[in-house]
Structures are given as structure tokens and as C-alpha cells.
Amino acid sequence: MIDLAEPKFQWGQPVQAVADLCNDGSYPDVAAEEILVRQGDTGEIVQVGTHVETNTFIYMVEFHKDRVVGCLEDEIAAVL
Length: 80
Hints:
Layout: E1 14-17, E2 21-22, E3 35-37, E4 42-51, E5 56-63, E6 67-71, E7 76-78
Antiparallel strand pairs: 1-4, 1-7, 2-3, 4-5, 5-6
Protein name: Nitrogen fixation protein NifZ
Keywords: Nitrogen fixation
GO biological process, one term: nitrogen fixation
């Protein structure tokens, strides 16, 4: 069994995108590679999950009150 570290961010925590986040195909109603979230946009973590095969935390962040985007730790930063 692989032990996981603690997630860097927690549910309900405000965060901001540290780079533009583009559609990787997860949003069929949006063109491939179209920007979903711009660098500096803020949102709130609504769920924390784990990609089991890579032992990586994935943060579901609600941006713009209508779009939830899966983010890795290096794609977001805490809002102070």
C-alpha cells in the first residue's frame, strides 16, 4: 500500500490559477486547447481527489461560479 502525503490545499479554500488552464478534451462543448481559466482567476476548491495510479492529488476548483476544473497542485496557489 502506498502512503499519500497530505494535500496542499483543502476543501473550501480559495485559490487562483498560476497559469492559463486549457481544455484537454474534458469539456466537449469547448474547443480543444481553448482557455478555460485565465492566470490569476480565483476559485474555490470543491473537492479533493487522488489519481491512484500516479499517487497525485487532483483538486476540483469552481471558477466563475459555473465551471469546475480539475487542477494539479502546480496549477493553483492559495489566495492570501
